[in-house]
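Before relying on records like the one below, remember that each one covers exactly one chain. Contacts with other chains, cofactors or solvent are not represented anywhere in the record.
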Amino acid sequence: MDRAQLPLNALRAFEAAARHLNFTRAGLELCVSQGAVSHQVAELERRLGTRLFHRLPRGLALTDEGQALVPVVSEAFDRVAATLDQYADGRFREALKVGVVGTFATGWLLPRLDRFARAHPSIDLRIATNNNRVDLAGEALDFAIRFGDGAWHGTYAEPLLAAPLAPLCAPVVAARLSEPADMVSERLLRSYRADEWALWFAAAGVAVPMLRGPVFDSSALMASAAAAGQGVALAPPSMFARELAAELLVQPFGMSIDAGRYWLTRLMSRAESDAMQRFRVWLLAEIALDA
């Protein structure tokens, strides 16, 4: 079929009728008559040489051919709509979707997003937080900022920030702690990375106690529990500077361990767009300012 002769009105009528399985309701959505929708669909069926609907006494049912066409047409219209949305206020805005581990999002990125928006008003930045488990391809992410060792299969990883882990707790708990061995009798809040407390106690020269504290999939949530006096968290103090300054959390010991860092990652198969490049440059510049 000649692209210049694509029956766009007929495709729109088909898509609406497929969602409603009713020509009348499709016509109401499209602000045309039931007869107009029926005519457009019939014309599309004629051009394709196949039936797309079974006409029933009450409504419609898609044929196998109609079922196959629905997702293709729906996706095409969704992509057109998404692209047109990028022309808000008469200016093109390039969408950029970034997945961010929650602790980094709240502890570092969010306070700086206004500066990014002012510096790059043409970029429509979309943030999706996660607990460090992320699927770049499956979630259609341009970038993911995550914590770890930088080794993710099929992924290019650029180091951002070191994030040493140290005990953090409420002031009332810190008052009971004078040396690392005192930690043995406290409830130790844990992340899904099971070896972190063992590494910290080994560095402190203290035998690892039996770990019975609850397990969290978010350092931010774990730190909130610690601030509420529910135990001691092992988390990056750099991500909780505001809570430490307000004395909601206390770092009872200066010793920390290196269990990973934050990385900016993207798929190796994903070419870097202009918006991606500008975000990466801005991110690294902001980090350099804090150094």
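The chain has eleven helices and eleven strands.
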